[in-house]
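Progress against Task 2.4 (sequence-to-structure conversion) is shown through the following example record, which the project officer requested during the mid-term review.
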Amino acid sequence: MRPKITIIGAGNVGAQCAYKLAQRDFADLVLLDIVEGVPQGKALDMTQSGSIERFTTKITGTNNYSDIKDSQVVVMTAGLARKPGMSRDDLIHKNAEIVAGVVKQIVEHAPQAVLLMVTNPLDVMTYQALKVSGFPANRVLGMAPLLDAARMQSFIAELAKAPVTEVYAEVMGSHGDLMVPVPRLSTVKGKPITELFTPEQVAGLVKRTTDGGAEIVALLKTGSAYYAPGTAAARMAEAIVRDTKEIVNSCCLLSGEYGLNDVCLGVPTRLGKSGIEEIVTLKLTPEELAALQKAGAAVKNLCGILK
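Structure tokens generated for the chain above:
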């Protein structure tokens, strides 16, 4: 019997996630949305591309939460997207309400699933999902650190005129203004970018990475990014279902790691069938650690608003 993955929210991010997973052809999919016809139509469209893309993935579009039963992973993309001039934090109250309602349905119908959060503001919504679900901390995680690192990798590759496959970027912290890119640990062909670029160039890469989502929102004018976010979520879902044990930066609950407690923040993690199987602790400089702890304090304050 094939594994089963559910994507909740059939908007741009959810549909991109579903389609990337369909192309990988290792699990059957459920695409769920509250709007009648939308998940069904997108599922049908994706299914009809199977003969062209050469995949046999079964894709079910539905408005019924009972269809998510036995899902190994549930990807939560539902929520309001940012518009120009909005911060991720502006979304907090409305999306917290949406997340709480959806998570209760997940607990009822797929109580053994790993819950992968995409809804913004990511760090706060991951914490909200953890508290509402009552799931163990290893089974609730957020996607954004992988996305942030992917953005930094693309910017580094552009500046270095190197293939992106030869670039590594280390990004931790919150998914927002207090993101913590770590240039010292970011490399091109194994060489730190701090040795390849001027301090001004490195600072520019950090700034552009931090503003990566806002840059796309400003260009699109009527929406936000979805190709890279949906693809990042698909990769993480695959790592969990396939039990790859690969290290992927994820938003997760910290309980003493990096001097932080009771806050969800982006750090390196090892992913497997139980979700987060290990939180990897990097040796940070005092300045890097201070930045990470500052991000943690800010996320905690936002979570306090929900309480």
